[in-house]
Amino acid sequence: xxxxxxxxxxxxxxxxxxxxxxxxxxxxxxxxxxxxxxxxxxxxxxxxxxxxxxxxxxxxxxxxxxxxxxxxxxxxxxxxxxxxxxxxxxxxxxxxxxxxxxxxxxxxxxxxxxxxxxxxxxxxxxxxxxxxxxxxxxxxxxxxxxxxxxxxxxxxxxxxxxxxxxxxxxxxxxxxxxxxxxxxxxxxxxxxxxxxxxxxxxxxxxxxxxxxxxxxxxxxxxxxxxxxxxxxxxxxxxxxxxxxxxxxxxxxxxxxxxxxxxxxxxxxxxxxxxxxxxxxxxxxxxxxxxxxxxxxxxxxxxxxxxxxxxxxxxxxxxxxxxxxxxxxxxxxxxxxxxxxxxxxxxxxxxxxxxxxxxxxxxxxxxxxxxxxxxxxxxxxxxxxxxxxxxxxxxxxxxxxxxxxxxxxxxxxxxxxxxxxxxxxxxxxxxxxx
Length: 433
Hints:
Elements: E1 2-9, E2 16-19, E3 23-26, E4 34-39, E5 49-59, E6 61-63, E7 67-71, E8 77-81, H1 82-87, E9 94-105, H2 120-128, E10 135-140, E11 150-152, E12 163-174, E13 186-195, H3 200-205, E14 215-221, E15 228-235, E16 239-241, E17 245-254, E18 259-273, E19 280-289, E20 300-308, E21 321-323, E22 351-364, H4 372-375, E23 377-387, H5 395-403, E24 413-418, E25 430-431
Parallel strand pairs: 1-24, 3-13, 16-23
Antiparallel strand pairs: 1-2, 2-4, 4-10, 5-9, 5-12, 6-7, 7-8, 11-12, 11-21, 12-13, 14-15, 15-17, 17-20, 18-19, 18-22, 22-23, 24-25
């Protein structure tokens, strides 16, 4: 059996941290714990206290050399220039919350220290380095309701960290934990929390998804025009997986005195903050058609439109919510629908993501054609769930496992993969367990 470990050193080289993975799944009633090992020479940590903790970072603004875009409650990016942007250049625009913490050294100083069973790779690593002092295995639990790691794509040309919510597992030693951390004595990994894809029967049981196909009926009376316009819209299913086709069944009954000239269908990603009002709609997929048009007064149109639940290549990603990446160059993956069936988001910080299908009909042929935005459009919306069929896979680990030679390796081992540049030159450490 093979386990790929990641190793990282602090800038001073005094603290070494090992973890086995960077992605942890939220099963809604519990989240996968973080297991790791921290090594600090006893001579270096004399008179100090060693801590390890999970930090939640929420960034609500992104700063570039010339412009500053502020992340507001309704997901709008406000552009500041010149002196106004320079005025905010020294503000971090980030909030940090410690969601879990544990004191590792000296042993027994932390309150309510609960012993746990070490994993196989932790036991094997401790045996391999038994001649070293200051080996501290740990296990940190995410609280229930921990929000998933999500970031919002900003406008093109904006540098710096993206707006959104991310996690870090950090280890440091200090004399007083209330004082600011010293960077050279701190080491950490970016980790990601993703929500588990619930089966459709459980979603229906929790009243999160309808047991029937989602549908809506919209009827509108126009000002100074006789008759009504009616749109019946129904989706073929309530839960869709990314990349699948979604069928939209539509019946348009035109009992007004106006003529329908064009039909537009869209899929939207709707995002909002859990602690603020307002929401932001970003288009995911769009199609426009004149098939069956014009629809004169008194006529009815029945059509089925097929839309793809994936990003269109020619569309910009601005204002879309993606899963937070843990490595540079990692492929961005669109956020799935976020749900909290058992509890509210922990600490009040969360980006709530949902999806909806929308159809809009454009009319003309009356004396009010110049005010089309108020009198010449009728739209209907239906929400749906968008999930990913499989969890994100680490491509680099898969390639290294597929190209390895199983004959030349022991039956059970631990392979250490370093993530810092200097230690990457070292040979991988193999440990039998």
